[in-house]
Write a structure and sequence with these properties.
This protein has about 210 residues and is of the alpha+beta class. The chain folds into 2 domains: about 150 residues, Sandwich (Jelly Rolls), CATH 2.60.120; about 30 residues. The strands form 2 sheets. A 5-stranded mixed β-sheet has the order 1-3-10-5-8. The relative contact order is 0.22.
Amino acid sequence: MATLRILVSLLTLAASPVSALTVSELDAGEYSSIWTSPTLIASGTSAITGTGTAGDTDIFAVSGLASGAQVLTLFLSGADAFTGSYLNGGGSIRYSSTPFSYDWDGLDPGDFGISYDPFQPVSASNNLTASQSITLDSSFGGTLYLAMIFTYGNAPLSYGLDLSSALLPGDPLVETPSAVPLPATAPLLLTGLAGLLLMRRRQGRVG
């Protein structure tokens, strides 16, 4: 039975997708604020996290995403900076399928912001968290140029851009199951496992 457990574990690991990467400003260092020289985000990155306060600009070039129309979500939070009194902060976003040259390049999906008064009821407009959608159209080619522009606020905001829905599978065998039907190999593997167990039982009886 130990042999069976080991082989089943190896089979499970082989079938699991490679874990995706989160790029954090704490680990990667300060993100670029130069429009013509963005921070390069490698293929396979599932999320980008960072912080920004009034006057900050974080600029990225994210490669290896799925092409075509899709929606990415940006999450924002002021919870880490909240000290018990009124908190606000926000700014704007620019994004493009081609490299930036100037701060007016790209598209604007709308401003983002957080406004929170702890002495008022929590609501959609009085909250420590917010989100913003970035809608990519059918012309999107797989590389995203993105700028987070923080224009006001009395405290830093944390942000996270979720890229998981746009990730391409890292293994081409997973990408094209019709060409290489991985599920069809499962019966062969199970047959092999059964054969191993049968051989072990026979050897045990002979011994």
